[in-house]
Write a structure and sequence with these properties.
α1 (19-30) packs across α7 (217-229), α3 packs parallel to α4 (106-134) and α8 crosses α9. The protein has 314 residues and is an alpha/beta fold. Strands 3-2-1-4-6-7-10-12 form an eight-stranded mixed beta sheet, sandwiched between helices. A two-stranded parallel ribbon has the order 5-8. A two-stranded antiparallel ribbon has the order 9-11. The protein has ten helices and twelve strands.
Protein backbone atom coordinates (compact mmCIF):
# COMPACT_ATOMS: atom_id res chain seq x y z
CA UNK A 1 0.00 0.00 0.00
CA UNK A 2 1.39 3.40 -0.98
CA UNK A 3 -0.01 6.83 -0.19
CA UNK A 4 0.59 10.02 -2.14
CA UNK A 5 2.96 12.72 -0.88
CA UNK A 6 1.01 15.35 0.99
CA UNK A 7 1.70 18.01 -1.63
CA UNK A 8 -0.19 15.85 -4.13
CA UNK A 9 -3.17 15.14 -1.90
CA UNK A 10 -6.72 16.41 -1.65
CA UNK A 11 -7.64 16.26 2.03
CA UNK A 12 -10.93 16.67 3.85
CA UNK A 13 -10.58 17.68 7.50
CA UNK A 14 -13.84 17.29 9.40
CA UNK A 15 -14.09 19.26 12.63
CA UNK A 16 -11.61 21.92 11.56
CA UNK A 17 -12.90 25.05 13.24
CA UNK A 18 -10.65 24.84 16.31
CA UNK A 19 -8.18 22.70 18.23
CA UNK A 20 -6.67 19.61 16.61
CA UNK A 21 -8.74 19.92 13.45
CA UNK A 22 -7.76 23.52 12.80
CA UNK A 23 -4.02 23.07 13.21
CA UNK A 24 -4.22 19.87 11.14
CA UNK A 25 -5.88 21.70 8.25
CA UNK A 26 -3.29 24.48 8.45
CA UNK A 27 -0.39 22.01 8.42
CA UNK A 28 -1.78 20.09 5.44
CA UNK A 29 -2.19 23.35 3.53
CA UNK A 30 1.32 24.52 4.45
CA UNK A 31 2.65 21.25 3.04
CA UNK A 32 0.87 21.88 -0.27
CA UNK A 33 -2.30 19.80 0.04
CA UNK A 34 -5.63 21.06 -1.26
CA UNK A 35 -7.91 21.15 1.78
CA UNK A 36 -11.67 21.07 2.37
CA UNK A 37 -12.59 22.01 5.93
CA UNK A 38 -15.90 21.50 7.69
CA UNK A 39 -17.54 22.08 11.06
CA UNK A 40 -20.78 23.47 12.50
CA UNK A 41 -19.61 27.10 12.81
CA UNK A 42 -19.36 29.04 9.53
CA UNK A 43 -17.50 32.09 10.84
CA UNK A 44 -14.61 29.99 12.15
CA UNK A 45 -14.40 28.07 8.89
CA UNK A 46 -14.29 31.32 6.93
CA UNK A 47 -11.43 32.61 9.04
CA UNK A 48 -9.57 29.31 8.60
CA UNK A 49 -9.90 29.40 4.81
CA UNK A 50 -8.75 33.04 4.82
CA UNK A 51 -5.71 32.10 6.89
CA UNK A 52 -4.82 29.25 4.54
CA UNK A 53 -5.20 31.44 1.47
CA UNK A 54 -3.10 34.16 3.11
CA UNK A 55 0.02 31.99 2.79
CA UNK A 56 -0.87 30.73 -0.70
CA UNK A 57 -2.69 27.54 0.27
CA UNK A 58 -5.77 26.15 -1.43
CA UNK A 59 -8.87 25.59 0.69
CA UNK A 60 -12.63 25.72 0.71
CA UNK A 61 -15.20 25.07 3.41
CA UNK A 62 -18.61 23.52 3.95
CA UNK A 63 -20.79 23.79 7.04
CA UNK A 64 -21.91 20.39 8.31
CA UNK A 65 -23.13 18.65 11.46
CA UNK A 66 -21.66 15.15 11.74
CA UNK A 67 -24.83 13.87 13.44
CA UNK A 68 -26.55 14.01 10.04
CA UNK A 69 -25.33 11.51 7.45
CA UNK A 70 -26.49 13.57 4.46
CA UNK A 71 -24.45 16.54 5.69
CA UNK A 72 -21.35 14.36 6.16
CA UNK A 73 -21.85 12.89 2.70
CA UNK A 74 -22.06 16.45 1.38
CA UNK A 75 -18.53 17.09 2.71
CA UNK A 76 -17.10 14.24 0.65
CA UNK A 77 -19.16 15.20 -2.39
CA UNK A 78 -18.06 18.85 -2.11
CA UNK A 79 -14.41 17.76 -1.94
CA UNK A 80 -14.75 15.82 -5.18
CA UNK A 81 -16.81 18.57 -6.80
CA UNK A 82 -14.22 21.27 -6.07
CA UNK A 83 -10.95 19.35 -6.47
CA UNK A 84 -11.91 16.32 -8.54
CA UNK A 85 -11.07 13.61 -6.02
CA UNK A 86 -10.53 12.69 -2.37
CA UNK A 87 -7.23 11.22 -1.17
CA UNK A 88 -7.35 11.54 2.61
CA UNK A 89 -10.25 11.85 5.05
CA UNK A 90 -9.45 13.11 8.56
CA UNK A 91 -12.28 12.86 11.09
CA UNK A 92 -11.82 14.87 14.29
CA UNK A 93 -15.11 16.13 15.84
CA UNK A 94 -15.96 15.21 19.41
CA UNK A 95 -18.02 16.65 22.25
CA UNK A 96 -17.79 15.83 25.93
CA UNK A 97 -19.93 15.76 29.04
CA UNK A 98 -18.17 15.60 32.40
CA UNK A 99 -20.39 13.87 34.92
CA UNK A 100 -20.77 10.59 36.74
CA UNK A 101 -22.65 7.95 34.76
CA UNK A 102 -25.68 8.13 37.07
CA UNK A 103 -25.82 11.90 36.63
CA UNK A 104 -25.89 11.62 32.83
CA UNK A 105 -29.29 11.53 31.16
CA UNK A 106 -30.14 9.01 28.43
CA UNK A 107 -30.49 11.88 25.98
CA UNK A 108 -27.06 13.29 26.85
CA UNK A 109 -25.36 9.91 26.58
CA UNK A 110 -27.00 9.26 23.21
CA UNK A 111 -26.00 12.68 21.93
CA UNK A 112 -22.33 11.96 22.65
CA UNK A 113 -22.64 8.62 20.84
CA UNK A 114 -24.35 10.32 17.89
CA UNK A 115 -21.52 12.86 17.49
CA UNK A 116 -18.41 11.01 18.66
CA UNK A 117 -19.19 7.54 17.30
CA UNK A 118 -21.88 7.80 14.63
CA UNK A 119 -20.21 10.90 13.20
CA UNK A 120 -17.07 8.84 12.65
CA UNK A 121 -19.14 6.02 11.15
CA UNK A 122 -20.84 8.47 8.79
CA UNK A 123 -17.46 9.91 7.82
CA UNK A 124 -16.10 6.52 6.79
CA UNK A 125 -19.31 5.69 4.93
CA UNK A 126 -19.18 8.99 3.04
CA UNK A 127 -15.49 8.84 2.19
CA UNK A 128 -15.05 5.18 1.23
CA UNK A 129 -16.88 5.26 -2.13
CA UNK A 130 -14.64 8.12 -3.30
CA UNK A 131 -11.45 6.47 -2.03
CA UNK A 132 -12.38 3.24 -3.79
CA UNK A 133 -13.06 5.10 -7.01
CA UNK A 134 -9.56 6.62 -6.78
CA UNK A 135 -8.09 3.18 -6.15
CA UNK A 136 -6.80 3.98 -2.66
CA UNK A 137 -6.19 6.61 -0.04
CA UNK A 138 -6.33 7.12 3.72
CA UNK A 139 -9.06 7.12 6.35
CA UNK A 140 -7.72 8.77 9.50
CA UNK A 141 -9.91 8.65 12.58
CA UNK A 142 -8.93 10.72 15.60
CA UNK A 143 -9.89 8.47 18.48
CA UNK A 144 -8.36 8.70 21.96
CA UNK A 145 -6.41 6.73 24.52
CA UNK A 146 -9.91 6.43 26.02
CA UNK A 147 -10.62 3.99 23.22
CA UNK A 148 -8.27 1.70 25.15
CA UNK A 149 -9.04 2.72 28.71
CA UNK A 150 -12.20 4.46 29.98
CA UNK A 151 -11.93 7.28 32.50
CA UNK A 152 -14.30 8.35 35.29
CA UNK A 153 -16.60 11.30 34.57
CA UNK A 154 -16.35 10.46 30.84
CA UNK A 155 -18.41 7.29 30.41
CA UNK A 156 -20.20 8.48 27.27
CA UNK A 157 -17.04 9.77 25.59
CA UNK A 158 -15.13 6.61 26.50
CA UNK A 159 -17.95 4.42 25.19
CA UNK A 160 -17.93 6.32 21.89
CA UNK A 161 -14.16 5.98 21.49
CA UNK A 162 -14.33 2.24 22.24
CA UNK A 163 -16.97 2.06 19.53
CA UNK A 164 -14.71 3.87 17.06
CA UNK A 165 -12.01 1.29 17.66
CA UNK A 166 -14.50 -1.52 17.13
CA UNK A 167 -15.93 -0.44 13.81
CA UNK A 168 -12.63 0.61 12.21
CA UNK A 169 -10.99 -2.70 13.16
CA UNK A 170 -13.74 -4.60 11.39
CA UNK A 171 -13.73 -2.21 8.41
CA UNK A 172 -9.94 -2.42 8.08
CA UNK A 173 -9.95 -6.20 7.83
CA UNK A 174 -12.83 -6.14 5.34
CA UNK A 175 -10.89 -3.73 3.11
CA UNK A 176 -7.80 -5.92 3.36
CA UNK A 177 -9.88 -8.98 2.47
CA UNK A 178 -11.22 -7.19 -0.60
CA UNK A 179 -7.65 -6.01 -1.41
CA UNK A 180 -8.45 -2.30 -1.36
CA UNK A 181 -5.26 -0.24 -0.84
CA UNK A 182 -6.94 2.03 1.70
CA UNK A 183 -5.05 2.83 4.90
CA UNK A 184 -7.25 2.95 8.02
CA UNK A 185 -5.60 4.62 11.00
CA UNK A 186 -6.71 5.27 14.56
CA UNK A 187 -4.84 8.21 16.07
CA UNK A 188 -5.06 7.95 19.87
CA UNK A 189 -3.90 11.07 21.72
CA UNK A 190 -3.32 11.43 25.42
CA UNK A 191 -4.71 14.61 27.05
CA UNK A 192 -4.43 17.50 24.58
CA UNK A 193 -4.48 21.17 25.55
CA UNK A 194 -7.25 22.07 23.12
CA UNK A 195 -10.53 23.99 23.63
CA UNK A 196 -12.26 20.63 24.33
CA UNK A 197 -12.01 21.09 28.10
CA UNK A 198 -13.33 24.63 28.11
CA UNK A 199 -16.17 23.82 25.71
CA UNK A 200 -17.50 20.66 27.36
CA UNK A 201 -20.74 20.39 29.31
CA UNK A 202 -19.85 19.94 32.98
CA UNK A 203 -21.86 18.75 35.95
CA UNK A 204 -18.85 18.80 38.26
CA UNK A 205 -19.47 22.35 39.48
CA UNK A 206 -16.12 23.43 38.05
CA UNK A 207 -14.46 23.66 34.67
CA UNK A 208 -13.19 20.16 33.85
CA UNK A 209 -9.53 19.37 33.41
CA UNK A 210 -7.75 16.43 31.83
CA UNK A 211 -5.44 14.25 33.90
CA UNK A 212 -1.98 15.75 33.31
CA UNK A 213 0.42 15.98 31.61
CA UNK A 214 -1.01 17.91 28.67
CA UNK A 215 0.24 17.92 25.09
CA UNK A 216 -0.18 20.54 22.40
CA UNK A 217 -2.59 20.05 19.46
CA UNK A 218 0.26 20.30 16.97
CA UNK A 219 1.62 16.99 18.23
CA UNK A 220 -1.56 15.30 17.04
CA UNK A 221 -1.44 17.21 13.75
CA UNK A 222 2.11 15.97 13.22
CA UNK A 223 0.93 12.41 13.79
CA UNK A 224 -1.97 12.86 11.35
CA UNK A 225 0.31 14.21 8.64
CA UNK A 226 2.72 11.33 9.17
CA UNK A 227 0.05 8.64 8.76
CA UNK A 228 -1.39 10.47 5.73
CA UNK A 229 1.82 9.46 3.92
CA UNK A 230 2.74 6.25 5.79
CA UNK A 231 0.10 3.50 6.17
CA UNK A 232 -0.24 2.94 9.90
CA UNK A 233 -2.68 0.93 11.98
CA UNK A 234 -2.59 2.80 15.30
CA UNK A 235 -0.68 5.89 16.41
CA UNK A 236 -0.49 6.72 20.11
CA UNK A 237 0.40 10.38 20.68
CA UNK A 238 2.31 11.20 23.84
CA UNK A 239 4.29 9.10 26.30
CA UNK A 240 1.38 8.87 28.73
CA UNK A 241 -0.77 7.32 26.00
CA UNK A 242 1.91 4.68 25.47
CA UNK A 243 2.22 3.97 29.19
CA UNK A 244 -1.53 3.80 29.80
CA UNK A 245 -2.01 1.50 26.83
CA UNK A 246 0.73 -0.84 28.09
CA UNK A 247 -0.41 -0.92 31.72
CA UNK A 248 -4.04 -1.45 30.70
CA UNK A 249 -2.98 -4.51 28.69
CA UNK A 250 -0.94 -5.89 31.58
CA UNK A 251 -3.21 -5.13 34.56
CA UNK A 252 -6.54 -3.31 34.28
CA UNK A 253 -7.00 -3.49 38.09
CA UNK A 254 -3.76 -1.54 38.49
CA UNK A 255 -5.16 1.21 36.27
CA UNK A 256 -8.35 1.13 38.37
CA UNK A 257 -6.24 1.75 41.47
CA UNK A 258 -4.34 4.61 39.84
CA UNK A 259 -7.56 6.26 38.71
CA UNK A 260 -9.07 5.91 42.17
CA UNK A 261 -5.99 7.67 43.49
CA UNK A 262 -5.80 10.59 41.04
CA UNK A 263 -8.50 10.27 38.37
CA UNK A 264 -11.24 12.18 40.18
CA UNK A 265 -9.33 15.01 41.85
CA UNK A 266 -7.23 15.88 38.82
CA UNK A 267 -10.27 16.30 36.56
CA UNK A 268 -11.49 19.18 38.75
CA UNK A 269 -10.02 22.59 38.02
CA UNK A 270 -10.21 25.42 40.56
CA UNK A 271 -12.44 27.48 38.24
CA UNK A 272 -16.18 27.33 39.04
CA UNK A 273 -18.42 26.51 36.10
CA UNK A 274 -22.13 25.77 36.13
CA UNK A 275 -24.04 23.30 34.01
CA UNK A 276 -25.73 26.25 32.30
CA UNK A 277 -22.47 27.97 31.32
CA UNK A 278 -21.74 28.29 27.57
CA UNK A 279 -20.61 25.01 26.01
CA UNK A 280 -20.57 23.33 22.61
CA UNK A 281 -22.60 20.27 23.55
CA UNK A 282 -25.58 21.14 21.36
CA UNK A 283 -24.35 24.09 19.30
CA UNK A 284 -21.06 25.78 18.39
CA UNK A 285 -19.62 28.24 20.87
CA UNK A 286 -19.23 31.83 19.78
CA UNK A 287 -15.60 32.25 20.90
CA UNK A 288 -12.81 33.00 18.43
CA UNK A 289 -10.82 30.41 16.50
CA UNK A 290 -8.59 28.71 19.04
CA UNK A 291 -6.05 25.95 18.52
CA UNK A 292 -4.56 25.95 22.02
CA UNK A 293 -6.78 25.50 25.06
CA UNK A 294 -6.71 27.47 28.28
CA UNK A 295 -4.84 24.89 30.37
CA UNK A 296 -1.23 25.76 31.11
CA UNK A 297 1.01 23.05 29.58
CA UNK A 298 2.70 20.84 32.14
CA UNK A 299 5.42 19.49 29.87
CA UNK A 300 8.73 20.96 28.79
CA UNK A 301 9.00 23.54 26.04
CA UNK A 302 10.39 21.03 23.52
CA UNK A 303 7.32 18.80 23.68
CA UNK A 304 4.90 21.69 23.84
CA UNK A 305 6.39 23.15 20.67
CA UNK A 306 5.68 20.02 18.68
CA UNK A 307 9.35 19.59 17.75
CA UNK A 308 9.43 15.92 18.61
CA UNK A 309 7.35 13.41 20.57
CA UNK A 310 7.36 9.68 21.29
CA UNK A 311 4.23 8.52 19.48
CA UNK A 312 3.79 4.78 19.17
CA UNK A 313 3.20 3.44 15.68
CA UNK A 314 2.08 0.01 14.56
Amino acid sequence: MKLKPINQQVVSVVGASSGIGRITALEFARRGAKVVVSARGESKLKSLVEEIRSFGGEATYIVADVEVFDQVKAIADKTVEVYGRLDTWVHVPAIGIFATFDNTTPEEFKHVIDVDLMGQVYGAMAALPHLKREGGGALIHVSSVEGTRSLPYQSAYSAAKHGVEGFIEAMRVELQHEKWPISVTSVKPAVINSPFWNNGLTKLGVKPAGIPPYYEPKLVADAILYVAEHPTRDYLVGDVAKILDLVQRISPPLVDSLLLLVGFKLQHSSEPKSEDAPNNFYQPVAEHDKVIGEIEPRRGDTWASGAEYPGRRS
